[in-house]
Design brief:
With 253 residues, this protein is α/β, with parallel strands linked by helices. It has helices at residues 18-29, 41-53, 68-82, 106-133, 156-176, 203-213, 222-233, and strands at 9-13, 33-38, 57-62, 87-90, 137-142, 181-188, 244-247. It is globular. The relative contact order is 0.14.
């Protein structure tokens, strides 16, 4: 076990999700103190206990990334408790309602954009300010292979929001590198999470569908996405700025 992140404080939004938990465990195993943020206290508590049972250091902050006051408080709480914020993994996101553009209602569109894109903007806004105050840091945002890299009929809101994350990441990366803040994105394809299933699918159904369209023949293990996030956040990626690392088994290659 390495200690690439010994002494570092890591904030993870969408902290109760499968990829978030895998990433939090990986950071904690390499020495970081991990703060999980999300809107549901019970699920965050379970995630914190899982990390602590594994020997890691973890904490939680209840926050909804669509609420500006919540996001400001979330980052301020981390700074107050630990004196700094070194790394942020902005993972909060939803798939939303699938429908053709002509049939997609405004409320469904707005909900996806509010969580996936506006929530990302609000998180970055406050994380950047905090990191500037303590001399720099690293931010990794979750985009998707659906968006800037590929499109799928019926997922217009999701694709637009994630394409927006990719461009927002690149723009902020150019703005912030002079302040010692590296910003990058990771774009997963289908991973072994509830979002990889279509309504009514069994695991066998999903795996057969994925084998037909993904060159690697399978969904990713969430730990594979976590490994990409940790590399982007580490000093090993010190010259990587504004990248959007696709982790999708070749689906959009």
């Amino acid at each position: 076990m390495s200690a690439r992140f010994e002494g570092k404080v890591v904030l993870i939004t969408g902290g109760a999700g499968v990829i978030a938990r895998a990433t939090a465990l990986a950071f904690a195993r390499e020495g970081a103190t991990v703060v999980l943020a999300g809107p549901q206290d019970d699920s965050l508590t379970r995630a914190v206990k899982e990390i602590e049972a594994d020997g890691g250091r973890a904490d939680a902050v209840v926050a909804d990334v669509t609420r500006p006051d919540d996001v400001a408080r979330m980052v301020a709480t981390v700074a107050e408790r630990y004196g700094r914020l070194d790394i942020a993994f902005n993972n909060a996101g939803i798939f939303g309602k699938g429908a053709p553009v002509a049939d997609l209602d405004h409320e469904a569109w707005q909900r996806v954009l509010n969580v996936n894109l506006t929530g990302m903007f609000l998180s970055m806004k406050h994380e950047i300010a905090c990191m500037k105050a303590n001399g720099g840091g690293a931010i990794v945002n979750v985009a998707s292979n659906i968006g800037a890299h590929g499109r799928r009929p019926g997922l217009a809101a999701y694709a637009a929001s994630k394409a927006g994350v990719s461009v927002l990441t690149q723009t902020a990366a150019r703005e912030c590198i002079a302040d010692g803040i590296r910003i990058n994105a990771v774009s997963p394809g289908a991973s072994d999470t509830p979002m990889s299933y279509r309504p009514g699918e069994t695991r066998e159904d999903r795996d057969a569908r994925v084998r037909a369209v993904v060159p690697a023949g399978r969904v990713s293990d969430p730990r594979e996405v976590a490994a990409a996030v940790l590399w982007l956040a580490s000093d090993e990626a010190g010259f990587v700025v504004g990248a959007d690392l696709v982790v999708d088994g070749g689906a959009t290659a």
